[in-house]
Structures are given as structure tokens and as C-alpha cells.
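Quick question: who can interpret this fold?

. . .
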Amino acid sequence: MSKTAKYKQLGQQLINNIENNAYSIDEPLPSLRTFCTLHQISMTTALACYRYVESLGYITAFPKKGYFVTGLPTTQQHYQFPQFKAEPASFVRPKSQLKNLSQTLATAELDSTLIDSKRLSQSLTQACKHHDQLWGYASPEGEYVLRHALSNHFTHQGFALPASDLLVTHGCLDAVQHAISVTTNHNDVILVSSPCYSGLLDLLCSLNRQVIEIPSTDNGLDLEQMENALRQYSVSACLLSANHQNPTGHSLTNTQKQKIAELAHTYQTPIIEDDVFRELSHTKVTPLPIKHYDRTGWVIWCGSFSKSLSAGLRLGWCAPGRFFDAFLKQLSVRTLGVNKPLQLAMANYINKGHYQQHLKHVNQHLCAHKNLYLHYLQEQLPNNSSIYMPSGGMVLWLAIPALNTEQLAMKLAHQHIYIKSGSLFCNTNRYDHCFRLNIGLVPTDEVKTQLTIIINEIKIQLS
């Protein structure tokens, strides 16, 4: 019988210690050098041990800080997406909605401590020093130096996109709004996934569009119903998120992304892809967008730095495909270009490798945050609760039968605690028992106190 490797033996001892609370959540482990001395092993064995335990979900490595306990591995609590027949519907909004307060559990926003403000400031300073034409009008399509930097960045992720295919916008939502205006008219029907980000539903409502909501599934999206809707109804465009979708955090498979691109071609229906969370992957692989599988230009791909880097940048991009000329004409008329100094600064930031380093840093933190939030919530919430387990992004989607989350949100607001009720992510009441939490916030003692109050209010309402 083969003997268990030394690093696995030590790894199991470490796991036992963690499960027996010898180390508390978010507590650093002994340094690798100390671990070597304690167990009289080589650095190679110590590193193999820590990486083995990390692969099982107990600890996380942070550059220049070491390894930290992130809790017991969380198991997927089965979340059952509601199933229904997809049909066109006019909006019944506006619904009661709290103000979008920054840096709360209600927003999908990075903690201020995770923003790379120092290097961003340095890039802005350098951009302002070396460009004689800095203060003139920006190019309507966006500065080439930024589009070229973005093109190289995406290519290194396995998604080749020429700079000439890209346009620069005032953020992702701005790109989406232009895409809606280019492809649809008042009272046209737009297909969306269900649940759908509340900001997109608000935008569609303000633009007087109708919607068809397509049910989500464990594996992504009900593509059979999507094709039936494209065949049966006059759908002018589809507005979808394929990666770490807001509010659930769930993603489509590559097979589904390819199928959606094929459906767009078959039915000659534009796909407006809101891909703002794509780069926030909790694994080491950045997923591909639907646009990767687009061969005939029917996919309009939209993204930005707002979620991955800083909400205040308001700088995004779009690859409009066959709608490039119409999209550029609209940009030229409506915006006269995007902030030039900021574009040049972001090109500098990307070209120096800072953006890629930042993404690695942020994604490690978000993965650790997810484990900490899940560990705390799963221990305290009612037994019949379920939480969708995201593979990326910065939100958690919770479902608790019989809970009225609009009432919960209003009661919490009186205590200056904010969540996003599930009713905001749908045109019906099918998600009234759900709510969304921001895990972009560092789980400090103050945040844990807020979570405790939320849990107590849930138990009071259900009692």
C-alpha cells in the first residue's frame, strides 16, 4: 500500500486544526518559513502542503501577506430558479426603491480599500505630463492608445478583439443605452434573463420598451424558451449577461454562449451583451464572452472598469459589430467623445501591467470574501434558506421562503442598513422572497454586525 505523501499528511493535520477552531476565520497561518521550522520540512514540502489545503477551500494566499484561513469549504445549497412561460409584458415599474447608497451591502461595488488609487493616480499624473494634445476634444471613437491597450489585454485572456472594433463609452450602462437606441424603437420587445439587473430594467422602462423574461436554470438560461420567443414574437433585441450575472452571480456555459451567438445569426436579432462582471472571476480563468463566438456581428459587447477597478471612473467600451457605424454616429452626436485625460491614464495603467495585477489581487479578495460571507450566513440563516454559489462577481443571491424582502429592506433602512430586494430584479413578484448582498465589502466587524441584524430581522419576520 502506498504511503500518503508528507505534504498531504501535514495538510490533513492543518485541516483538522482549522475545523477544530484552532485558527479563527480570516486569521493568518504561520509563515512558510515558520511552518518549515515547526515540522522540520523543506520549503517545497511546506508550500505543497499550503497549496493542497488551499485547493480544498480552507485557506487563501494573499501576495506579500501570506496564507489566511477563509473558513470551512462551503457546499452548494441547491437554489431552484423559478420556471415560467416567457411572454411579452409591459412594465409595472416604478417599484419602491432605496437610494443607491455607495459602499453598502445594497450596492455592487468594491470596498474602497480594494481600489488601486495610488497607481491610478500615478497613471493619471504621467498621462498629463506627456501629451501635448491632452486638453483638446477626444476622438469620438475613443483614443486609439486606450483601444489598443484594451485589445492587447483581452487577447491575453484568449479573446482576440482588434482595436478597430472597439469604441470607448461613458461606462457599461452608457454603452448598453446606445446599443438599445441603435437597435430598437419605442414599444419594441427586448428579451432579458430572469432575474435581471434592476438598473437594466429601469433603463428599459425609461426608454418605453417591453420585455420578455426568460427563466434562468442551474446550467444558465432556458435556451429552448429563448428560441421559442425569437420564433413566436417580434423580438427586436436581447439584453443578456453571460458571466457572473447580476444579481445571482451565475454564468452561462461556453456551449450556451455559442448557441446564443448562433441564434442571433439565425433570427438576425442583436444580442446586447452586458459583460461588466466578466473579469471578476473567483477562479484563475477569465471566462469568454458571447462575443467570442460571434461570426456575423450580431453581438454588441459592452463592458467597463466600473466593477473591476473603480465605480467612479465611468469609463467603458463597446464592440458593436455590424452596428459599428450607427453606434459611432450616435456617440458623435450625443457625447462628443469621452474624457481624454482619463482615457490616456487608463491606457498607461493597462500597458504597465497594473490592471492585470489589480485583477489578480481583487479576485483573490473577492473569493475570500465569498467564503467568509457564506460561512457566516449558512450558519445563521433559517434551515430552508438557499444561497446561489457564484463563480465570480461581487454579489450573493439569497432566497428564503415566505420572506417579504421589500418589508425587510424598509425595516433595515431605518437602522441605516441596506440590501437590494428581489422584487427590483423582475417585472413580477416571483422574487419577493429573495435579496442581493454586496460581497465587495471587506467583512469587517461592522459588516458582520450588520449581517447579524439582517439575520435577526429575518427571524423576527418569519416567527
In short: The chain has a mean pLDDT of 90. The domain at 117-356 is CATH 3.40.640.10 (Aspartate Aminotransferase; domain 2). Residues 132 and 254 are 45 Å apart (CA to CA).
